[in-house]
Design brief:
alpha+beta, Alpha-Beta Plaits, 8 helices, globular, metal-binding, signal, metal ion binding, kinase
C-alpha cells in the first residue's frame, strides 16, 4: 500500500513520472528455492540499487495461486502451473526503485529460458519454460494487484536506504 499511495501521489503531481517509489512483486518459484538461488537473486536486485521493502517465505495456497494466475485459467497448462507453484515454498518479495517494473523484467529474461540472454536470471539459471525459477510483475498495475494479494499492509516496510543519494 505504501508503494501504491506514493505512486498515485507522484503520478498526480508529475505527468510521465516513472517512479522513484514504484514497486514490483517478485516470487522465487519452488524450483529456485530448491536450487538455492534465492541469495543470488536478491544480490542481483540489491546490486542494481533497488530497495527491498517486503520479503517472506510462504507455502502458497491453491486459492492464492488461482487468483494470482487468474489470467491464465483457460490455458492448458494452468492445472500443472498451480501444482508446480504449490509443490514447495516460494519467496515472495516487493522491490522498490525507479522504473523497477520494467528494469526487473529485463533482468529476469524471457519466460522461455531458450529466448533469454546470458546475464539474465532465466538465461543463467533456467533450462525449461515449466521451471523458470522466478516470477516478476509485467506492469505497474499488475504489481499493485500482486503485492496486495501476497502482502498485508503491515508486511511492507518503509525505511531509508543510506546509499539512496548515490544511486
Amino acid at each position: 500500500m505504501i508503494c501504491f499511495i506514493l505512486s498515485v501521489f507522484a503520478q498526480i503531481l508529475k505527468s510521465g513520472w516513472t517512479g522513484a517509489n514504484e514497486c514490483t512483486f517478485i516470487a522465487v518459484k519452488p524450483d529456485g528455492v530448491q536450487r538455492k538461488l534465492v541469495g543470488e537473486i536478491v544480490r542481483r536486485f540489491e546490486r542494481r540499487g533497488f530497495k527491498l521493502v517486503g520479503l517472506k517465505l510462504v507455502k502458497a495456497s491453491e486459492n492464492l495461486l488461482r487468483e494470482h494466475y487468474w489470467d491464465l485459467r483457460t490455458k492448458p497448462f494452468f492445472s500443472g502451473l498451480i501444482m508446480y507453484m504449490s509443490s514447495g515454498p516460494v519467496i515472495a518479495m516487493v522491490w522498490q526503485g525507479s522504473d523497477v517494473v520494467k528494469t526487473v523484467r529485463k533482468m529476469l529474461g524471457e519466460t522461455n529460458p531458450a529466448d533469454s540472454l546470458p546475464g539474465t536470471i532465466r538465461g543463467d539459471y533456467c533450462v525449461e519454460v515449466g521451471r523458470n525459477v522466478i516470477h516478476g510483475s509485467d506492469s505497474v498495475e499488475s504489481a499493485q494487484k500482486e503485492i496486495a494479494l501476497w502482502f498485508g499492509q503491515s508486511e511492507l516496510q518503509r525505511w531509508e536506504q543510506s546509499s539512496s543519494r548515490w544511486i
